[in-house]
Structures are given as C-alpha cells and as structure tokens.
Structure to design on (65 residues):
C-alpha cells in the first residue's frame, strides 16, 4: 500500500460487545467489513467512511507512483 497513513491505528468500538480494539487504516481501506476479535461479530464498513478511505488510498497510490 502506498498510503503513508496506512499503518496508523485507530480505535474501533464493537457495536455488539462494546469492547474496543485497534485496526490500521490500511486494513480498513482494503475491506468492506472486519470481525471483532472479542466476540466475532462482523462489523460492516459502509457509507461514506468506507468509500472515502478507499478513495484516499487510491489517491495516495497515484501520488507516490
């Protein structure tokens, strides 16, 4: 991945068990959903957040070619 922020970790709160865990921006921009490591619930990355993260990743890829 070419995104210089790809390794930056952000906190995610599980909507089911309410535990917090960290995921990298790179992980989130490459996936449509993630699993909570505590309870296993599938958390969808949808709407503007998912689209904007993928768009940002593509833009950085073009910038650093």
């Amino acid at each position: 991945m070419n995104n210089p922020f790809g390794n930056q970790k952000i906190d995610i709160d599980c909507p089911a068990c309410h535990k917090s865990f960290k995921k990298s921006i790179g992980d989130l921009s490459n996936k449509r959903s993630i699993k909570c490591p505590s309870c296993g619930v599938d958390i969808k990355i949808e709407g503007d957040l998912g689209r904007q993260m993928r768009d940002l990743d593509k833009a950085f890829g073009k910038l650093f070619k």
Q: What stands out?
A: The chain has one domain: 9-63. The chain has two helices and four strands.
